Amino acid sequence: MRINSPAESGTSKFTRSLSLFDAVTLVVSGIVGASIFIVPADVLRGVGNPLLALLLWVVAGAVTLIVGLVCAELGGMFPEAGGQYVYIREAFGGFSAFLFGWVFFTVANSAGLAAIVIVFALFLGRAIPALSAEQVLYAKELFGIHFEFTRGSLVAIVCIVVLTAVNVRSVKLAARLQNLTASVYLGVVAIIAAVGFALGRGSWSHFLPQPGTHASSVSLHGIGLALIALIFTYDGWEFVTWAAGEIENARRNLPLALIIGILLTVATYLLVNVLFMYALTPERMVQQTTVAEAAMTAMFSSTAGRWVSLFIAMVNFGAGSVVVLGGARIYYCMARDGVFFRSMGRLHPRWNTPTVSLLAQCAWVVVLIASGGYEELYARFAFMITLTYVATVGAVFVLRRTQPNRPRPYRCPWFPWLPAAYLLVALGLALSTLFSRPGQSLTGLGLALLGIPLYLGFGRRSRLEKDAELATAALTPSAAVPGTGHPADRG
Hints:
The protein has 19 helices and 2 strands. By secondary structure, it is mainly α. It has a single domain, classed as Up-down Bundle (Amino acid/polyamine transporter I). It has a two-stranded antiparallel ribbon.
């Protein structure tokens, strides 16, 4: 059950200023990060066969498209800020939605954002040696733990502060940043592919496994690990649903943005992989840590390879902005529901952005970057993060039954078979994570449940405040306008 907070009576609302193009670039920028320039080597290393590796990229893309089709239906039903938080709340109740939001604020979104801006700093340091991320600025032993603050951490903190400032000022300004980075990504990939295949050094024989090398080995274990990595590489499509309250004609444009954005990303991911495999032999590709740099060097020159780092940094900068924008909307919704800090449910009176929510998110991410604990935390919550996707897709089954008459501008095709297929994959991924890392998974579950006292405390506060409002209204009948109900019920 949803607990209404006093913030509900506020008149400030999000401005629907994001066009369909803005929403599509949010999807593209949300998915695309450094992974596409690194993971292809890991996938080939795991499966051994170039053509099989390409097939797995197609399979993972199809799985992502399925969940996108499901969320297209849910987004059309609930075209408001919060996305997954709202879907889970409507299907499973306020407590489940709170746990989702709590996990994302404490770790999933915040630690992921910390990792994105750290990667931005690392690649920026490669492109501009004066900003080398490895240089240690401060190091000290505290209680037997080695604490180290590098130039990369400083650059990452500056990055998150700048991105937060942009998002505080205007959602449209943040959207323009996404439009730029997504357009540059799509344009550069298309140009490099066209020039590379026409003039670059490479060979189509690289797609054939070479006998007697690592590329000839295939194992089910390797395929499974590769699929897990690929599904997380396609992650990020959901951020646009969190900003649905600011999308023009969201009932139409949100489903379209999800489908178009995911298809664009899948297409470019396949194109990038074909380009890498054309440039590098399988045995050389599996030896790379940043396969994009090696591929550009092989096709063109070492100078071209050095530009790759700057390009990856730019792409990550855009991805970071999407995460900043989306995450703050979840915490805003939690506050509006009375299950988080009240101030985080307020919008700036002039800019209509969730300023306090954005600043709180920024502060917590800075703490995670400075402490260096974001990687360990994220690893412990991988199991819980996977369960949130299970809950999101499960919501479409529940809502088809409990809210059959609610308007659905778009319906997920081949229901229930497509959502059920995704649930099987997601549950398999969750169980694989649990069995491979039981200690980390159970610790993450325990840390998530630590939010229960907070939920109970916020719920009690909201009930007391509502009782006080009702008591005040009973003593002052003039505060209510006949026929409109209590003022707290409006807004």
